[in-house]
Amino acid sequence: MSNHAPALALGDVQREVLAALSRSQVASHREVQRAQVLLMASEGLANEWIARVVGVNPGTVRAWRARFAQDGLVKFGAVRAGRGRKPVIPEAKIAEIVWLTQNTRPAAETHWSVRSMAARVGVSPAQVQRIWAARGLKPHLVKTFKPSNDPNFDEKLIDVCGLYLNPPENAIVLCMDEKTSIQALDRTQPSLPMVKGRGETMTHDYKRNGTTTLFAALEVATGKVLGTCVPKHRHNEFLDFLKTIEKEVPKGLEIHLIIDNYATHKHANVKAWLQKHPRFHLHFTPTSSSWLNLVEGWFRDLTEKALRRGVFHSVPDLIEKIEDYIRANNENPKPLIWTATAESILEKVNRGRVALQATKQN
Question: What angle do helix axes 58-71 and 29-41 make, rounded to 10 degrees?
């Protein structure tokens, strides 16, 4: 084929499309090059000159001209079968890596790493990483779970989800729990502030200055928190906290309290008090299902944002910092929005139970 091939015939619409592609900032580089080649070819320019200007091989220019003459702009960006980058690893090797990752473990270790798997199958660590990433395999991560054995799991789940999704009128829904044994930890040496190139540092060892227990009730509709720190968490302290709730919640509102199955919540004295205060309605979460109580998420935030890196010289100092965090939360509260239905949760739980049973049988 002569380099001085005849000018490529383009229709007006084809020329507009190719002109737009040749200037595109979002199309692939290969598509932009191809559009530029075809536009130059329509002007009757030599193939070798077009190849030098665009940065491709003369053979590529000829192939794109021939394909356009045959197909026009149909499947313009598609790569023809048999062309393009060839897979480096055969499918059988990829299947082997996936199977080994999901069904085996390296000798004397709990999970595969990219290096141990690469050594096992004879490929590079980068190739193993790409295969894992493409299939969402993450052997280095582990999630904890524990299916509830509560015989009334379904009933309790539906009850609590119903309160979140359809709260009753003229009522307040509170998620309540205790965060026990919060330690007042003081570092043995002063911490060093964050500077350029280095984060904040603190000593690994600490001094224990006592503990406190936080009773907290989170209002689902507003995100506000009512909290009290006490030395212990017996039924007497729980009763005192119920009385605090009784004082704080306006008269005329029913109080629906979501709590766990801790023994102090079911003490005889607690039951007797509740009988005298009928506007309180207790809703118990299933056993091993703390995730269903929204206050647990607030406890997590409290730990991460105010306690884990805190320095507390005494228990009163610790209590003051906790109360500061509660005040700051209540100045800018965020309503908690629950979206999962009881049916969707039950479906996931049942799938987990089936998978767990299959694992036990194997």
Answer: 80
Residue 236 amino acid letter: N
Length of the chain: 362
pTM score above 0.70: no
**What tens digit of pLDDT does each residue of 48-69 get?**
999 999 999 998 999 888 888 8
How far is 210 from 322, CA to CA, in rounded Å? 15
Instruction: Give, for 210, the enclosing helix (H) or strand (E).
Output: strand 206-219
Beta bridge partners of 215: 178, 228
Query: How far is 213 from 319, CA to CA, in rounded Å?
Result: 9
75-118 per-position pLDDT tens digit = 776 666 666 666 678 889 999 999 999 999 999 999 999 999 99
- Helix or strand (DSSP H, E) at 11: none
* Domain with residues 153-194+201-345, CATH architecture: 2-Layer Sandwich (3.30)
Per DSSP, 79 falls in state P
For domain 12-71, give the CATH number. 1.10.10
Span 20-42, pLDDT tens digits: 889 888 888 888 898 999 999 88
* 325, two tokens: 């965090």
Question: Which helix or strand (DSSP H or E) is residue 256 part of?
Answer: strand 254-259
